[in-house]
Design a protein that fits this description.
By secondary structure, the chain is an alpha+beta fold. The chain has helices spanning 22-34, 124-127, 131-158; strands at 2-8, 45-53, 59-67, 70-79, 83-88, 97-107, 110-119. The protein has a single domain (2-11, 18-158), classed as 2-Layer Sandwich (Alpha-D-Glucose-1,6-Bisphosphate, Chain A, domain 4).
């Protein structure tokens, strides 16, 4: 199953939030990879199992996210100034899935974040979901991503990025 949506970052309309640079947006989504507790509700902590910087500029971070007794292992690939791709390993409680946040700039300073989520349709946990549960998951993801953009704006406004 695939779900994707896009959030406009910059608008030149009157009353629109401040224009962010590509670098500010990148630093915000990168922070979501480095320090996910600022972005993921319910996350109690995380541990980095492996961190690698490759010759082509990409970084790979293998992490374990701690949600109390529930843990998720993932691998995050950061392609600087372009995208972050997360691969989540399947468990008996969670299907294998991926999430990508990609910066798009169709014209100068016209920034968007495209979020793409994919789940393994063959996984029993995925097959067990009803259409209503899938819709609720999609709504929750849109909310999480909108919160991420709000958090990026807060960080940019405070000068912390």
């Amino acid at each position: 199953m695939r779900f994707e949506h896009i959030i406009q970052i910059n608008s030149h309309e009157i009353g629109a939030p401040a224009v962010l640079s590509r670098e500010q947006v990148w630093r915000g989504i990168a922070l979501r990879a480095y320090d996910p507790a600022h972005f993921i509700i319910g996350l109690e902590g995380h541990a980095v199992r492996h961190h690698e910087r490759r010759d082509d500029g990409t970084e790979v971070i293998e992490r374990t996210l701690h949600f109390g007794v529930f843990e998720v292992d993932d691998k995050v690939t950061l392609t600087p100034m372009e995208q972050i791709h997360v691969e989540v390993a399947a468990t008996d409680k969670w299907p294998a899935c991926t999430a990508t946040a990609r910066i798009e700039e169709p014209e100068p300073s016209s920034l968007f974040l495209r979020f793409v989520y994919e789940w393994n349709d063959a996984d029993p946990a995925e097959q067990a979901l009803s259409d209503d549960e899938r819709r609720m998951r999609e709504q929750a993801l849109v909310g999480l991503d909108m919160d991420t953009v709000s958090r990026i704006r807060e960080l940019a406004d405070s000068g912390m990025q």
